[in-house]
Amino acid sequence: MSKRLVAPSILSADFNRLGEDIEMINQSDADYIHCDVMDGVFVPNISFGIPIIQHVKKVATKPLDVHLMIVNPDQYIETFKAAGASILTVHYEACTHLHRTIGNIKANGMKASVCLNPHTPVHLLEDIIGDLDMVLLMSVNPGFGGQKFIENTYDKVRKLKKMIEAKNPDCLIEVDGGVNFETGKKLIEAGVDVLVAGSFVFGSDDPIDTIGKLKLV
Ligand code: DX5
Ligand code: ZN
């Protein structure tokens, strides 16, 4: 059974009034606040970093789901914990010693999650899945909001779901990129637990209503 959780991505928020957008998420049925940290090296874009996460944490009443699109994430694990992260996601492609990284995230009291780029096969997680609290599948190439959903993601979700059922049934599946009512519904049917949505939520006329409806797709 899918957990049916929703994590609005503040990458598409209005940074002139970020506090109000966080307050909107507080008032909504959202489960997490998804924070996209980009370093301009791992991905071809730079978003925001630690001071913004600290600011969001002060206002937020929901756990921060922090998605690190950065090289050398190990260097910053303690810093993101101190800034307020509850879930910390690192990219498979950015971690040479992934087992150590996951251990460090957990030792710092956070849920540990690994993200796969669209080209990275899920079978590469076979020997680490037992240690993970969540797997994040990118359904666009990371770096920007508002991109087109990659259809192959449904297959990846189904493969990952089988692996999780066999090896670690408590591990959640999250999908990020191009999520809307249509793709969200198919993702939930395929076995996804957490839908990340940025432009679809913040570009809608009534974001609170959109978040509520995403939980019911
Ligand atoms: C993309 C980010 C996403 C982004 C999703 O690199 O990881 O979280 O905010 O944006 P949408 O929902 O607009 O595709
Ligand atoms: Zn993200």
From TrEMBL:
<feature type="active site" description="Proton donor">
    <location>
        <position position="176"/>
    </location>
</feature>
<dbReference type="InterPro" id="IPR026019">
    <property type="entry name" value="Ribul_P_3_epim"/>
</dbReference>
<dbReference type="InterPro" id="IPR011060">
    <property type="entry name" value="RibuloseP-bd_barrel"/>
</dbReference>
<feature type="binding site">
    <location>
        <position position="67"/>
    </location>
    <ligand>
        <name>substrate</name>
    </ligand>
</feature>
<keyword id="KW-0862">Zinc</keyword>
<dbReference type="InterPro" id="IPR013785">
    <property type="entry name" value="Aldolase_TIM"/>
</dbReference>
<feature type="active site" description="Proton acceptor">
    <location>
        <position position="36"/>
    </location>
</feature>
<comment type="similarity">
    <text>Belongs to the ribulose-phosphate 3-epimerase family.</text>
</comment>
<keyword id="KW-0170">Cobalt</keyword>
<feature type="binding site">
    <location>
        <begin position="198"/>
        <end position="199"/>
    </location>
    <ligand>
        <name>substrate</name>
    </ligand>
</feature>
<feature type="binding site">
    <location>
        <position position="34"/>
    </location>
    <ligand>
        <name>a divalent metal cation</name>
    </ligand>
</feature>
<dbReference type="GO" id="GO:0019323">
    <property type="term" value="P:pentose catabolic process"/>
</dbReference>
<comment type="function">
    <text>Catalyzes the reversible epimerization of D-ribulose 5-phosphate to D-xylulose 5-phosphate.</text>
</comment>
<keyword id="KW-0413">Isomerase</keyword>
<dbReference type="InterPro" id="IPR000056">
    <property type="entry name" value="Ribul_P_3_epim-like"/>
</dbReference>
<feature type="binding site">
    <location>
        <begin position="176"/>
        <end position="178"/>
    </location>
    <ligand>
        <name>substrate</name>
    </ligand>
</feature>
<feature type="binding site">
    <location>
        <position position="178"/>
    </location>
    <ligand>
        <name>substrate</name>
    </ligand>
</feature>
<protein>
    <recommendedName>
        <fullName>Ribulose-phosphate 3-epimerase</fullName>
        <ecNumber>5.1.3.1</ecNumber>
    </recommendedName>
</protein>
<dbReference type="GO" id="GO:0046872">
    <property type="term" value="F:metal ion binding"/>
</dbReference>
<dbReference type="GO" id="GO:0005737">
    <property type="term" value="C:cytoplasm"/>
</dbReference>
<keyword id="KW-0119">Carbohydrate metabolism</keyword>
<dbReference type="Pfam" id="PF00834">
    <property type="entry name" value="Ribul_P_3_epim"/>
</dbReference>
<feature type="binding site">
    <location>
        <position position="67"/>
    </location>
    <ligand>
        <name>a divalent metal cation</name>
    </ligand>
</feature>
<dbReference type="GO" id="GO:0006098">
    <property type="term" value="P:pentose-phosphate shunt"/>
</dbReference>
<keyword id="KW-0464">Manganese</keyword>
<feature type="binding site">
    <location>
        <begin position="143"/>
        <end position="146"/>
    </location>
    <ligand>
        <name>substrate</name>
    </ligand>
</feature>
<feature type="binding site">
    <location>
        <position position="36"/>
    </location>
    <ligand>
        <name>a divalent metal cation</name>
    </ligand>
</feature>
<dbReference type="GO" id="GO:0004750">
    <property type="term" value="F:D-ribulose-phosphate 3-epimerase activity"/>
</dbReference>
<keyword id="KW-0479">Metal-binding</keyword>
<feature type="binding site">
    <location>
        <position position="176"/>
    </location>
    <ligand>
        <name>a divalent metal cation</name>
    </ligand>
</feature>
<comment type="pathway">
    <text>Carbohydrate degradation.</text>
</comment>
<feature type="binding site">
    <location>
        <position position="9"/>
    </location>
    <ligand>
        <name>substrate</name>
    </ligand>
</feature>
